[in-house]
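Notes continue from the previous slide.

Worked example: a multi-chain complex. Inputs as given:
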Amino acid sequence: MTDSKEIKVKEKQEVTTPAEQTIPGLVFTPEVDIFETEKAITLLADIPGVKPEKLNIDLRDNILTITGDVERPEGGDEEVLVMEYETGRYYRQFTLSEVIDQSKIDAKLNLGVLRLRLPKVAKATPRKIAITAG
Amino acid sequence: MIYRRIFGVPGWEARNQFSELDNMRRQVDRLYQGLFSPSTRPGAGVFPLINLTESKDRYTVRAELPGVNSTELDIQATANALSLSGERKIPEEDGGAKYHRRERESGRFSRVVSLPGEINPDKVEASLVNGILTVVVSKAEASKPRQISVR
């Protein structure tokens, strides 16, 4: 294990306008990691406070949309003294260049982190092309 | 007719201009509030950012800690402060992974949150659900509000 560094404080990134919102409220961009292997594209997104039933993942026409709603956690009798972060909706969209096998998409939500595995269809997995000298 | 054109129409325009100005002033006010009011400025520049609320007999501290295991988290309470420290680990992916984006950060963190009043360090409850840490701290008897009856 290498020396771990200190985490720097970062303010949540607010989205200007993804599209007109039907429900008023703040919208944030979740931080993501995206990596690709030969078989699949995997996306990890930090969406703390989103319950599994409030998470919506949509893939159509190569556009992946992730939407997660966070309810205000404060109870009715609590008075806010310090507010360093705000809560609202998480929203992010990606265009996928690969063809994804929709039936095998797998999503897990654990500790506020979404792990989404998007398997490529067999056609899109790279094949080694043999070159014959002539 | 002329009378109306000169006095009637400009009157309308002037009113519209004023409301436009009002709108602008409100927007600038909001901007300034966002920049300078202590309640919305991001903390002491230390991870994690926290929200602190107060109710009659307790304080509640909340922080967003996605991907942090409860075993990697250490919470300590003194008479008027809470210390939160731990480590966020992002496990290495299999060798063949090629990254397109890498925005999530890993590392250690430690922060002291001072509370506005005395607390009872023995009565602290913490939970970590969906990446949100909630610490509920009971106030010490001395700092609880007391009902005073007027005779």
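Summary box: The domain at 23-73+80-119 of chain A is CATH 2.60.40.790 (Immunoglobulin-like). The two ends of chain A are 51 Å apart (CA to CA).
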